[in-house]
Write a structure and sequence with these properties.
It is built from 16 helices and 12 strands. By secondary structure, it is an alpha/beta fold.
Length: 468
């Protein structure tokens, strides 16, 4: 441990990586709140069925969606992290797959620094430079001579081929691996992230583990604040419910996830050769690996395995990223309905959430057509959206970061209605656009350094690489 604490970065002597504590939720308090909301909501929905008799089917459908939302809330309250350890976990050969493409040099340096400080060190860290225009020679020289990370580090460069092929270069180069850790090049791990991420593998039916993703630059501006809050709330509610109800998390985030290596090696050919309606699929890599794991066993979430990712800091980057995600999500939705078991929680969650999304669009159109008769209904829907967003935000208070205080956590709750409006008025139309254009599989981002941690040292232009 002393050696790990003494490690230095290549571009700065040290990085202040926050500690993160996941507290226990006050189940009784939250259950009482959820019960009160459920009673009021059920009464209101029943009233809508009576008042809007011309739209009985639509109102009854919304009642079902509301009941499912309450059930999801109740499930999420029961999530607990996996605990326990055994000698078998000590002997696992753990390999970190770290694709790099036009990443900020200082950010990548911090990512490697965090890997060198893990309480459970990986056995290998394979950096695959996917034809970046940025030179990382200074980083490579430093970390290859680091006493902790150096003996474990493998650094290769290839012609730009995309994230899937960069990951596959690692997957096929380590036949002795027992666990592959997929890590994004802008994602910093807390000191015990790998150790905590390995604990669920004590159960042999678990094939994939998702870490809990926080925003490193959470307080950079209003956009990162909203995005970080929304993503954290989604993980603590929706993903937690999936974890408890069936052990089937729909997406083990690409920022930080762990997989059984045998399964990964088996699916590499299908992973690289995936097509949809005759088109080669490049997007949705994390959801694809999660789906492979679910077809083999279980994919779960470990809330104590924490990572901190860089979130888009400007609107253009944010919308391009969301469009890319929605295009990949459209294909993954089809694959889940086709390949998952009808008895699995994920299959039904995918079906019902897709139905609820379509229903929300239908309700919006119906409200517009019948205005002003639908004014009461619209006002109630907006109020319900605000209340639900605040309830979701309350869950984030269980996450305590050493770089935040009570005021930071209060702000997350106070901005929850604004975040809900952003999702409804901005991200929902972008989602529709992503669904309509899902066969456009270009990467859309990373053609250059997107986010810099701070003013980085001068970056040397390397040979021109293909754009994604």
């Amino acid at each position: 441990m002393a050696t790990r604490e003494a490690c230095r970065g290549a571009l700065t002597s040290s990085y202040d990586i926050p500690d993160v504590l996941i507290g226990q939720i006050r189940r009784t308090t939250y259950a009482l709140v959820a019960t009160a909301v459920a009673i009021i909501g059920l009464a209101r929905h029943a009233d809508f069925i009576i008042v809007y008799q011309r739209y009985t089917v639509l109102m009854a459908s919304w009642l079902i969606v509301f009941m499912l939302a309450v059930a999801q809330w109740i499930f999420s309250l029961r999530e607990r992290p996996y605990t326990g350890w055994s000698h078998r976990l000590d002997t696992l050969h753990v390999v970190v797959s770290l694709p790099v493409y036009n990443e900020d040099a200082l950010t990548l340096d911090r990512v490697l620094f965090a890997l060198a400080r893990q309480t459970r060190l990986p056995d290998a860290v394979h950096v695959v430079d996917d034809g970046s225009r940025v030179s990382y020679q200074q980083l490579r020289d430093h970390w290859e001579h680091d006493p902790v990370l150096g003996p474990r580090l493998m650094w290769t460069r290839q012609r730009n081929a995309g994230k899937k092929h960069a990951q596959a270069a690692c997957f096929t180069a380590h036949p002795a691996a027992d666990i592959f850790v997929t890590l994004d090049s802008d994602t910093t791990l807390t000191s015990n992230a790998i150790e905590e991420g390995l604990r669920p593998f004590l159960r042999r039916d678990i094939y994939s583990v998702a870490g809990l993703e926080l925003a490193w630059n959470h307080s950079k501006n209003w956009l990162t604040l909203m995005s970080g809050s929304r993503t954290l709330s989604w993980q603590l509610l929706s993903c937690a419910a999936q974890n408890v109800a069936g052990g089937d998390v729909t997406v083990n985030r690409g920022t930080f996830a762990l997989y059984r290596a045998g399964m990964i090696r088996d699916v590499v050919p299908a992973y690289l050769a995936e097509t949809f309606l005759g088109h080669r699929i490049k997007l949705g890599d994390d959801a694809a690996l999660t789906l492979f794991a679910e077809c083999r066993g279980r994919a779960v979430q470990q809330p104590t395995a924490v990572c901190l990712a860089m979130y888009p800091e400007n609107l253009r980057h944010h919308l391009r990223q969301w469009t890319r995600w929605m295009r990949g999500s459209t294909i993954r939705t089809c694959w889940r309905l086709r390949y998952l078991r009808l008895t699995s929680y994920t299959w039904w969650y995918t079906l019902l959430s897709s139905w609820a999304f379509a229903l929300s669009i239908g309700a919006t159109v119906a409200a517009a057509i019948t205005w002003p008769q639908s004014e009461t209904y619209a006002a109630s829907a907006v109020l319900a959206m605000f209340v639900w967003s605040v309830l979701m935000a309350l869950r984030t208070t269980t996450v305590r970061r050493s770089d935040q205080n009570w005021l930071d956590r209060l702000i997350v709750i106070l901005i929850a209605p604004m975040t809900a409006l952003w999702v409804t008025l901005v991200l929902r139309p972008v989602r529709i656009y992503g669904i309509a254009t899902f066969l456009r599989q270009g990467w859309m981002t990373r053609s250059q350094v997107e986010i810099a941690t701070i003013a980085s040292p001068d970056l040397i232009t390397a040979s021109t690489a293909e754009g994604r």
